[in-house]
Amino acid sequence: MLPQSQVVGPQDPRRHEVEQFIADVYRNRYGASLHAFLPHLLAFRDGQGQLVAAVGMRVGSEGPLFVEQYLDEPAQALLSHREIACVGRDRIAEIGNFAATTPGVARELIVRLTDMLHAARVRWVLFAATQQLRNTLDRLHLVTVDLGEASPGRLTGDASQWGSYYQARPKVVCGNVAAGRAFLHQALKQDARPRTDSDPSLQVMVGAQ
After folding, report:
1. What is d(CA 129, CA 122) in angstroms, rounded to the nearest whole number?
2. Tell me: the pLDDT tens digits for 131-190?
3. Looking at the Swiss-Prot or TrEMBL record, what is one Pfam family this protein matches (predicted)?
4. What is the SS3 assignment for 178?
5. What is the rounded CA–CA span in Å between residue 59 and residue 56?
6. If you ran DSSP here, which 8-state letter would residue 152 be given?
7. Does 208 fall in a domain?
8. What is the pLDDT of residue 69?
């Protein structure tokens, strides 16, 4: 279990440390050079105070989502047109900057993240997922809906900073927060979580920046 968690905002004095942790994980995994991060970072520390995991978040009502660069229309419009859900932007969020030191830590982070999104009344979460991550989510029985390719050609910035990330064929997907949270908590109660310890995608589950 992760003993300490904290939400780190843009002006938090711990912000640089958490951003550097995320950047280091992405550089080691993909040769990426990240310099921009989502506004809210959920960070986790071990008993010695060392960072072991972090993930970024942005709610749709705060402004454009990074993943919307990959889409042909705003997230809430796409969810409605695809008959997935009719929700306002305040009920949609994106996650990204997902970095963890071990698969076990990553699994715990997923549980904490779904709890936080649920508490914030977020109903649908969007993120970019590589093929490896999509396979992992399938094995975990976490249902996602494919919204389209996450093409580097759609980015307004320099795609080269992402290193080899786009070679992993990421797609934009969405998931129902309440359904995912319920399943994860039930699996924890039954101690029946699928084992994914050998899957490196749980060590760096790359979502939207």
Report:
1. 19
2. 877 877 777 778 899 999 999 999 988 889 999 999 989 999 999 999 989 888 888 777
3. T_hemolysin
4. helix
5. 11
6. G
7. no
8. 96
CB–CB of 162/204 below 8 Å? no
DSSP codes joined into one string, 36-96: ---SEEEEEE-TTS-EEEEEEEEEGGGS--GGGGGSSS-HHHHHHHTTS----GGGEEEEE
Q: Which of 90-94, 146-150, 154-158, 191-195 has the lowest mean pLDDT?
A: 191-195
Which position has the token pair 């991550």?
Answer: 133
Provide the whole-model pTM.
0.84
Domain residues for the domain of 101 are 4-202
For residue 13, being part of any structural domain is answered with yes
Q: How many distinct structural domains can be found in the chain?
A: 1
Q: In residues, how long is the chain?
A: 209
